[in-house]
Amino acid sequence: MPKEKHVHKYVRVAMGSRGWTVYKCSIPDCTHFIQEKLVIGRSTICWRCGSTFIMTRHTATLKEPHCRSCTGRNPLERSNNLVDDLSDLIDIKI
Q1: Could you give the angle at the alpha carbon of 9 between the alpha carbons of 36 and 83, nearest 5°?
Q2: Is 27 domain-assigned?
Q3: Which of 4, 7, 56, 61 qualifies as a FRET site for 35, CA 20 to 30 Å off?
């Protein structure tokens, strides 16, 4: 019986005694592996927010690839957004 099609959630791993870089799907029961050069242009799931995005040369260098919207230049700005999001969830104004 064929497996259900899904978007893979890639993670970079080193394989073999020479440490070849490959990407594997971290979703349980998925045995998909792909070479580093072939992962560019493939859809994957972001490790930070869970949205789907297309792998680029930059994201292919990351151990756990994340989308552009999760990559912030200013860490303070990201933490303020997180506080705002959490305060909205629990209905407290800071």
Answers
A1: 120
A2: yes
A3: 4
CA distance 44 to 48: 12
pLDDT band at 87 (very low <50, low <70, confident <90, very high): low
pTM of the model: 0.68
Query: Number of structural domains, the chain?
Result: 1
In a domain, 85, yes or no: yes
Residues facing residue 14 across a β-bridge:
21
Give the distance from CA 58 to its chain's centroid: 12
Question: How confident is residue 65, by pLDDT bands cut at 50, 70 and 90?
Answer: very high
Cα 82-75-72 angle, rounded to 5 deg: 90
Tokens representing residue 83 in the block: 């506080």
At 64, which amino acid appears?
E
Identify whether 81 is part of a domain.
yes
> CA-to-CA distance for 88 and 80, rounded, in angstroms?
12
